[in-house]
């Protein structure tokens, strides 16, 4: 019977099974597993449980309700824990506090993550609604084009057409007879898209102005557009600024400038033209008989390229406006421009700001200005020619009885009192002359 009792006890739950008849506090061997005495308090942690929230709740209840045989009762009937039980209570309380803080910290993190997720979802919904409104207002390329295809001016810059979208647009524009001005700036059309526009302009004889700037067309697009310019006779304004054009593109454009006498305004700024391109374009400008304004700002024309371009300008008799700012003409370029100003009798607006022109270069340039009779606007700001260079320029204007100069700009160049005195005396003979400079030297020193 005893053996049978042991097997039954072991088959139930040997790890928590207790011998109710063992009053001596000794453990009875039940199937090789020691049972727990009755007097030992139940463990505060259940085996296999990892739920922190329920565990904390159960521990709190056990702290309040559980007493064991080691607790003492004082005279007033209150229960006082023994030393061992008090130590255990403190240990349990510390564990409870740590687990509670951990749970609260985790709960706070979860709340923050949920809040951020909701904020992001709300922002995403707002963006979607904004996009829908934009498309409803004309953000859709197709609907916008259909609404404006009968207008005289079509502005589609920043639409992200790409090469394929540009091809589709070009096909629609071949037979269009309403649009006269077309703006396709910053559409990432690249060379393929540029070629598609060039093919369209060979057939379309109504568009007179087109802006193809910031489209990264490179040599491929330049070659296609140059071929178009040899056939097109209606386009008089072309903007190719910021298209990664270099010496190879300059060779294609040179042939177009020699053959096309209808194009009047050409913008080639913010490209990669260097010395070789300066020589190529200079020779083309000398032969061109239709160009009225040319913009070559923000390139790298310097040295031999600057000299060759100035010689080409000397032979041109049609150009009215020229922007060479932010290149590197230097002293050599200024000296070459001296000869150009002596012989050119058509140029009216010249911008050579920020070209590293020193004092000596400014003096040479002034000698050409002394005999020029057509230049009205001269911009030479941000050049290291100092006040003496500005003085030489103004002195040449004053000494030229047939000068046409109306505006001089020397921005960011400080002038001295000698320049101010000369300016004051010049206004007596040239009352309409306007001069802009960086302020007087003494005033600038006082402010600093």
Automatic annotation (TrEMBL):
Write out the ranges of the annotated region (Disordered).
1-93
What stretches pass through the bilayer? none
> What superkingdom heads the lineage?
Eukaryota
UniProt-listed Pfam families: LRR_6
Acidic residues composition-biased segments? 66-77
Q: Which PANTHER family match?
A: LEUCINE RICH REPEAT FAMILY PROTEIN, LEUCINE-RICH REPEAT-CONTAINING PROTEIN 74B
Name of this chain's protein: Leucine-rich repeat-containing protein 74B
């Amino acid at each position: 019977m005893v053996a049978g009792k042991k097997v039954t006890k072991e088959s139930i739950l040997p790890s928590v099974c207790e011998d109710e008849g063992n009053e001596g506090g000794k453990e009875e061997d039940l199937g090789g597993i020691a049972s727990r005495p009755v007097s030992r308090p139940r463990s505060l942690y259940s085996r296999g449980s990892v739920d922190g929230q329920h565990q904390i709740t159960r521990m709190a209840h056990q702290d309040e309700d559980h007493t064991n045989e080691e607790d003492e009762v004082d005279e007033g009937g209150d229960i006082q824990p023994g030393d061992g039980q008090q130590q255990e209570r403190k240990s349990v309380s510390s564990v409870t506090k740590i687990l509670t803080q951990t749970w609260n910290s985790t709960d706070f993190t979860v709340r923050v993550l949920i809040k951020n997720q909701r904020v992001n979802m709300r922002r995403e919904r707002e963006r979607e609604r904004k996009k829908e409104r934009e498309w409803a207002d004309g953000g859709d390329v197709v609907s916008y084009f259909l609404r404006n295809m009968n207008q005289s001016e079509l502005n589609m810059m920043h639409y992200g057409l790409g090469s394929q979208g540009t091809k589709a647009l070009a096909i629609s524009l071949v037979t269009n007879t309403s649009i006269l001005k077309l703006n396709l700036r910053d559409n990432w059309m690249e060379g393929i898209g540029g070629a598609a526009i060039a093919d369209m302009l060979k057939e379309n004889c109504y568009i007179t102005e087109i802006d193809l700037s910031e489209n990264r067309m490179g040599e491929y697009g330049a070659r296609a557009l140059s071929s178009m310019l040899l056939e097109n006779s209606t386009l008089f304004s072309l903007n190719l600024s910021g298209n990664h054009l270099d010496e190879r593109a300059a060779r294609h454009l040179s042939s177009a400038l020699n053959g096309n006498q209808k194009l009047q305004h050409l913008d080639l700024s913010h490209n990669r033209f260097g010395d070789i391109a300066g020589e190529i374009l200079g020779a083309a400008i000398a032969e061109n008989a239709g160009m009225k304004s040319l913009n070559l700002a923000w390139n790298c024309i310097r040295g031999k390229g600057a000299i060759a371009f100035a010689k080409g300008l000397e032979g041109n008799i049609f150009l009215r406006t020229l922007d060479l700012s932010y290149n590197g003409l230097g002293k050599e370029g200024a000296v070459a421009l001296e000869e150009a100003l002596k012989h050119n009798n058509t140029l009216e607006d010249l911008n050579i700001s920020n070209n590293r022109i020193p004092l000596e270069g400014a003096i040479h340039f002034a000698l050409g200005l002394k005999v020029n009779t057509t230049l009205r606007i001269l911009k030479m700001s941000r050049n290291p020619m100092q006040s003496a260079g500005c003085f030489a320029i103004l002195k040449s204007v004053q000494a030229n009885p047939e000068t046409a100069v109306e505006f001089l700009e020397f921005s960011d160049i400080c002038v001295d009192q000698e320049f101010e005195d000369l300016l004051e005396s010049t206004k007596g003979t040239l009352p309409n002359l306007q001069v802009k400079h960086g302020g007087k030297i003494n005033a600038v020193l006082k402010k600093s």
